[in-house]
Amino acid sequence: MTQSQVLIVQHVPWEKPGRILDGLDDLGVASTVVNIAKSKKPDLPDFDQMAGLVVMGGPMGALDYDRYPGLKAEAKLVRAAISVGKPVLGVCLGHQIIATALGAKLAKGERPEIGFAPIKRVDKHGFFSMWDKQIDVLHWHNDVVGLPAGAQLLARSEHTKVQAFRVGSALGLQFHLEVTPTLLEEWLDEPSMVKDLKAAGGSKAQLREAFAACNPQIQPLADQVFSGFAARCNAYAQTLGAASAQPAV
């Protein structure tokens, strides 16, 4: 990358950045999307020019390195980004990749969490300053993670102790604030997602109805979280630009 950009790591075509990308676009922060899950030695953009890192969701396990060797490279990338203070955001699988990259344990949850259900705020942070104590959000996961050492727990749910955390320059979200109405329809056109939904006792009609009911509360929270992340990426990009403008000594 000649220009600083936010690197967005996708794992499957339908788990897109959605509102995360909207937040970046609103501030004019450039981004590029890659899928490196199956690459043993992925070709990645210049790390020094990365203004931030987003790791999206996917159906694989965070430690499934045998089938998806690129996940190991993602974990290394997460650790490197956090070590130098680059903004990092992980959603669902991405949340689990951040946690496990920093030494947290990965396990199967008590039961799959699929559909809308409440999470409870444990601690207040700038990203969640407008958030009430409890809010219904979209869940879609089987695995859960522990809290990395030194991390601040931000949210939990009845069946998942770590729903959101902050550690260094990274924010992990087990739930899906990024999903827009259009993206939801893409999920519901994907057979594997529909299979999971039905196995959890849900239906397309129920999920659409719940999304319509919850979205007016979720949209402002998503805007705050993702605009905050975009602002951090923009500020980091400016430091990169300032550094590159310095004359060589």
UniProtKB/TrEMBL annotation:
User: Per the UniProt record, which residue ranges are transmembrane?
Assistant: none
The residues covered by the Glutamine amidotransferase domain are 20-183
A cellular-component GO term for this protein: cytosol
**Any one GO molecular-function label of the UniProt entry:** transferase activity
Q: Does the keyword Transferase apply?
A: yes
Database matches in InterPro entries: ChyE-like, Class_I_gatase-like, GATASE
Which CDD domains does the record match to this protein? GATase1_1
What's the protein called, per UniProt? Type 1 glutamine amidotransferase
Q: In which organism is this protein found?
A: Bifidobacterium jacchi
List the taxonomic lineage: Bacteria, Bacillati, Actinomycetota, Actinomycetes, Bifidobacteriales
